[in-house]
UniProtKB/TrEMBL annotation:
InterPro entries, per the entry: Bax_inhibitor_1-related
Main subcellular localisation: membrane
Membrane spanning residue stretches: 27-45, 60-77, 89-113, 125-142, 149-171, 177-195, 207-226
Keywords annotated in UniProt: Membrane, Transmembrane, Transmembrane helix
Protein name: Permease
Family (UniProt): Belongs to the BI1 family.
Length: 233
């Protein structure tokens, strides 16, 4: 409780050595999140009951309920990780978010595997996603610019996307390839924004919430890159 009043030191205010140490911790936690996601996904796919339940939630209003629940978990995890200095609670929030992310991915991963009878599409999408993630993140470190100004544009874009997703679920139309491309652009912008926050928003002790934000943007990009790969003839 006594730590809650200690002033935070922004990453931009510390030495280059401390800054690099913060970046290493953050990206190590992103990598750890990816490994935990893969583990959760593997375990989910071993259960026919879980897979059937997840697939049943992709139709109409059920999909909206699932997305709504996922968004609530996302908001709770992000706010918990940011508002508490208790590392155990931060790790719990991060792990809970990864668990929810893995669950919502079940239908897409299952269909992708069924689509090719192997993991080729998933591997290809994963490689492209990681390459884009590294490339977009490097823009911030190379230019050293503050990209916080794109937040308003991202917010508008995501609200439009949510509206289209709701309309598609309610009226049963496919959003199509170009929607996936547009969402990839939004996800790329989110990665740019989250990477910029590493320096301009977070303190040296905030590597877990920083990793959570980056992981969320990475998985959003992976979702739509995978959909693009699956849409190929």
């Amino acid at each position: 409780m006594e730590n809650s009043f200690e002033p935070k030191v922004l990453v931009a205010q510390v030495s280059e050595t401390d800054r690099i140490a913060f970046y290493k911790k953050t990206y190590a936690h992103v990598a750890g999140g990816v490994l935990l996601f893969v583990l959760f996904e593997y375990l989910f796919l071993q259960s026919a009951t879980i897979v059937e339940f997840a697939l049943s939630m992709t139709q109409g209003y059920k999909w909206l309920l699932l997305l709504g629940g996922f968004m609530l978990i996302t908001n709770y995890a992000e706010s918990t990780a940011l508002k508490t200095s208790d590392k155990n609670l931060q790790y719990l929030a991060y792990s809970g978010y990864i668990f929810a992310e893995a669950f919502i991915f079940i239908p897409l991963i299952y269909i992708a595997i069924s689509y090719t009878n192997n993991l080729d599409v998933i591997k290809q999408a994963g490689i492209v996603t990681l390459a884009l993630f590294v490339g977009i993140s490097s823009i911030v470190f190379i230019t050293k610019k503050d990209f916080s100004f794109i937040r308003a544009g991202l917010s508008v874009g995501f609200f439009i996307a949510i509206g289209l997703i709701i309309a598609g679920a309610l009226f049963g139309f496919n959003l199509g390839l170009w929607f996936s491309v547009g969402m990839c652009v939004l996800a790329a912008g989110s990665i740019l924004y989250q990477t910029s926050n590493l320096v301009n928003k977070f303190s040296t002790d905030d590597y877990i919430p920083a990793a959570l934000g980056l992981f969320a943007s990475l998985m959003l990009l992976f979702w739509y890159v995978l959909q693009i790969f699956m849409s190929r003839d």
